[in-house]
Amino acid sequence: MKISEMNWLQVEEYLKTDDRAVVPLGCTEQHAYLSLSVDSILAERVASEAAAPTGVPVFPVQAYGITPYFMAYPGTISLRADTYLRIITDILDSLKRTGFRRILFVNGHGGNTPGQTAAIEWMGENPDCRVKFHNWWNAPRTFEKVKQIDPVASHASWMENFPWTRLPGIEQPSHQKPMVDLERMRTFGPKGVREILQDGNFGGYFQRSDEDMNAIWSVAIEETRALIENWQ
């Protein structure tokens, strides 16, 4: 169930028998030739498809994250870390106040991981609640499937190129881009990052077959669904 397709009366009825919720976390940032909303699209879709058979409501994606390194690419929006941590805490406070006690964040952006620390701190002050923070794309089973298909995979490369993150009429380059020196790149600000990355792909092919992508997607859905279903 998507919260956007429910009214408050239906949510109140749901909370009489269950207290789980799923909240996708995304970002708006450059992804080479793919949509600027890749992280949001994927996080929300993974969350929705994984939760569908469980009946657990999925909230709209938090579409802005922490991504200061891409600020030289037009269309990118970055939140300050302290702003983001307050957003995570406010979301959790709101969910608890209205009756939710078990919350799964399905995160689609590596820069958002400080939110996990905020969630842990919040649980210390709210011991009656449980929070899981799930980086869906590099979860053990999903990332192992990625590596089985092609170990050269990274930001804005083939591993994020699904039919629903591509843009109509935009051709993807056919070559395999060499991997960038990530340690060197991390010593530069936004302008230097853009000079190093150019189009934005960290390295690898830009696209693989839909068969490969569907194989990864199936594992990601199963792995995420298991977290929704199994609260130990």
UniProtKB/TrEMBL annotation:
Protein name, entry field: Creatininase family protein
GO BP, one annotated term: riboflavin biosynthetic process
InterPro entries cross-referenced by the UniProt entry: Creatininase-like_sf, Creatininase/forma_Hydrolase
Family statement: Belongs to the creatininase superfamily.
Keyword hit for Cell division: no
Species this protein is from: Microvirga tunisiensis
Named cofactor requirement(s): Zn(2+)
Residues that span the membrane, as ranges: none
